[in-house]
Amino acid sequence: xxxxxxxxxxxxxxxxxxxxxxxxxxxxxxxxxxxxxxxxxxxxxxxxxxxxxxxxxxxxxxxxxxxxxxxxxxxxxxxxxxxxxxxxxxxxxxxxxxxxxxxxxxxxxxxxxxxxxxxxxxxxxxxxxxxxxxxxxxxxxxxxxxxxxxxxxxxxxxxxxxxxxxxxxxxxxxxxxxx
Length: 179
Fold this sequence. Notes:
The chain is of the alpha+beta class. It has one domain. The chain is 30% helix and 30% strand. The chain has a seven-stranded antiparallel beta sheet, with helices on both faces. Strands 1-2 form a two-stranded antiparallel ribbon. A hairpin with a 3-residue loop joins strand 7 and strand 8 (102-106). The longest helix is centred in the last third of the chain and has 20 residues, at 111-130.
């Protein structure tokens, strides 16, 4: 087992405790188990103010691959003038969900990467909780979902038949910075 600093890689944590740190319900461990290869489980995806006149975007999701899960999150939104929280955070890696709801992080996934992903998910949770109920109701009535949260995307569609958000953050960065 290769060592990263004084922490061995791969490292394991309890799945339910990790969901709590991500500000997600415990049953999301079961949602991960039910996923098929190619499915994406969106933790959150929305647009917001970016740097200068450019729009920002935040997204975090899980994707099921053969024998493992991929997680990725990006925070490219500026909330205040002081740039707090930091306006550019990026994290991605792989993990396996083992018996007893144990999550084992694989390959080059370091504890620092996992910590950054947790931070992104907490920011998304904060934005979700900060929205007024009136704004949520208006968004749902117009069938325009600015904040995707907890949707399972299978074959490009959610369970209501709506196309999922564009969550390819690398493509978003290329378009954003080429303008």
